[in-house]
What we know:
The protein is globular, with a radius of gyration of 16 Å. The protein is 22% helix and 49% strand. It is of the alpha+beta class and 166 residues long. It has a domain at 4-35 and 83-165: Alpha-D-Glucose-1,6-Bisphosphate, Chain A, domain 4, CATH 3.30.530.20. Strands 2-3-4-5-6-7-1-8 form an eight-stranded antiparallel β-sheet, with helices on one face. The two termini are 24 Å apart.
Amino acid sequence: MSAQHGSFSLDLDxxxxxxxxxxxxxDASLRxxxxxxxxxxxTARHELDFRVGAGETARNVFxxxxxxxxxxxxxxxxxxxxxxxxxxxxxxxxxxxxxxISLVTVELADEPAxxxxxxxxxxxxxxxxxxxxQDAAHLRGGTRLLxxxxxxxxxxxxxxGLRVRS
Length: 166
């Protein structure tokens, strides 16, 4: 099967300055509170080196019934402009098979009530699930959950509107 390509964008509004949202990505203790792979906390591993050329790794074991999946995530930061932009590439593995690779651009902008995060992800599915029709929806949904977690960590007093652009 050939690789499948696509992209999507998500916008998330915050009532805190963009420097606080940026800190949610850059500060390892904050990042661990919202960025995690599915699975139990006892099996979770996470390392972050937030600088250009460095990256992040995460591993976990997800169990559903009698099925166990070993998940792995590796990223490399390509561009970091404090309080403004983060560009990175990551790969996702399930049971040792690289499933997809993505290029992500996170942009932060001032808004009258605080700040706005725009997440743009360009992905290539290498090993789709079945015919691949649900993979993009799964990726968008998982990203929404992650960003809701970021929102809870850096701006816990406010519910935020998350908009999706394809």
